[in-house]
Amino acid sequence: MSQASRPPNPDVFRAPTGTHDVLSPDSSRWSALVAAFAVRAERFGYELVITPAFEHTEVFHRVGADTDVVRKEMYEFTDAGGRHFALRPEGTAPVVRAFVEHRPTPPWKAWYVAPTFVTSARRRAASVNTTNSV
Asked: Quick check: 130 and 91 in contact, CB under 8 A?
């Protein structure tokens, strides 16, 4: 059966299993929460760090080689140039990579809020967005 003659998949117009949309009024509350956290974090010298949603796979293998996330739960892919990448399964490794790359002046106090991507069903109950300080 060709792609054109297949019946439409009703799930195409639903958020993927394990994810959810955040619409108003929840999105307004989420934005307010992050803004309030940012004010307090900055008051104590923490700076917001925003890293890419994907990194070289080796970033996660170096930092967490012995964890289930790295061994079994990462979404990995190879680009057209043959480079190996992974969607961010957690936020610490990308922040460490950013520190190594950019060498900010110590002491460096950082916080981040970012979506994470894992295949594990046990993370289903957790929010897709996580906030951590490093």
From this structure: yes
Using alpha carbons only, what angle is made at residue 72 by residues 68 and 77, rounded to the nearest 5 degrees? Answer: 130
Q: pTM of the prediction?
A: 0.75
Helices 92-102 + 57-64 axis angle, to 10: 110
- On the 0-12 / 13-18 / 19+ scale of CB atoms within 10 A, 37 is middle
pLDDT in tens, 53-67: 999 999 988 765 666
Give the separation between CA 70 and CA 24, rounded to whole angstroms.
34
Under CATH, to which class is 22-133 assigned? alpha beta
Which tens digit of pLDDT belongs to each residue from 20-40? 899 999 999 999 999 999 999
Torsion of CA 92, 94, 96, 102, to 10 degrees: -150
